[in-house]
Amino acid sequence: MDTFAASLFLERLGEFRPYLRVLAGMQLDPMLKNRIDPSDVVQQTLLNAHRAASQFRGTSDAEFAGWLRQILAHELTRQMRDHCRARRDVTRERSIQHALEASSLRLEQILIDDAVAPDSLASRNERAVQIAKALTSLPDRQREAIELHYWHHHSLQEIADLQQKSKSTVAGAIRRGLKALQSRLDGSDSPPT
Q: CA nearest 193: which of 104, 55, 61, 70?
């Protein structure tokens, strides 16, 4: 890969960082977040993707996102295995990969307006990247509350207990976070840069 192509590839990887960060955060049990930092998982994933750049054969953003999700699934499996000292389980790795794909779909469905449904896989992936970028820009408490509620399916009371806040404070954080996400996305209908 020549220098120009390598710099373009690195730029593309950077565009997907927020998307991968959100997906990694969704897959990690809140109890493991003390031991595994989703940002570290993403950094290693991007490094692995850069090393494997010559193996990417796709041409679209949807294929690129899928390829990155596979690398992320392998990295999450490796880190969880290392931290949990469990033996390698191929079914667990496949399970994480399927969970990442499902998380990607849930990510886009958080704010989808039924009247403006995406019409192709590429536009859905692009929208998921935009939502992930907007989600990572939220204050930590709001982002965490949204992830715990929508991806880990915790109740408001469970989130309140984890965050050591009242149930109404958590509900307000989720409401404000969703409103901020919608506002950011309404102003960013163009592809991520």
A: 61
3-state helix, strand, coil in the chain (%, to 5): 75, 0, 25
Is residue 125 within 8 Å of residue 62, measured between CB atoms? yes
Flag whether 50 is in a domain.
yes
Residue 150 in domain: no
Residue type, 172: G
Is there a domain that residue 67 lies in?
Answer: yes
CA–CA gap between residue 129 and residue 166 (Å, rounded): 31
What is the tens place of the pLDDT at every residue in 122-138? 566 677 777 788 888 88
Is the pTM of the predicted complex or chain greater than 0.70?
no
Q: How many domains does the chain have?
A: 1
Range of the domain at 79: 3-137
